[in-house]
Prior knowledge:
Elements lengths: L3 E6 L12 H10 L3 E5 L5 E5 L5 H16 L5 E5 H9 L13 E6 L9 H4 L7 E4 L3 E5 L9 H9 L3 E5 H11 L5
Antiparallel strand pairs: 1-3, 1-4, 2-3, 5-7, 5-8, 6-7
Helix pairs in contact: 3-6
Amino acid sequence: MATRLVALMRGINVGPAKRVAMADLRALVESLGYTEVRSLLNSGNLVFTAPGVKPRQAAQRIEGALAERLGVSSKVTVLGGEELAAIMEGNPLAEIGRDPSRLLVAVVADRADLGRLEPLAERDWSPEVLTVGARAAYLWCPQGVLGGRLFEAVNGALGGAVTTRNWATMTKLLALAGPSSP
């Protein structure tokens, strides 16, 4: 069974220094031998098929190719389709996070990095909420990421080890990943 992978690129298309056309990004990933490469809007998020490739290997190859061929430095986190589904199913904030643009999922490449969020999870961030799961952290930011302190605190604690997407984007990525191909 072919493995569907989801690549989350930190900072791609956020600022002028890291602008990459999605067609160029898809072509870059295809040149690495990956197939069925699809991008989600202009977001730096890709879904692709990579038979026999582990997510961490794919992330390293994409990071290297971005730097070497496009001159763009970006941390890349790659999740298997099943792993993304588990992250989505494991969201303990689904009931309170009714606005998908304000419910965030902070994904790390190394699960051990989530331990750095434990001191933050013990604090009261009201009306914001932080919960640390097995593979990701979940943030409810009812006033948006700029209206509160939680998003900044999580990024400060994790630095370059995290990439964050809102629930709407994660839902679209899950739909795009779909079931694995035979």
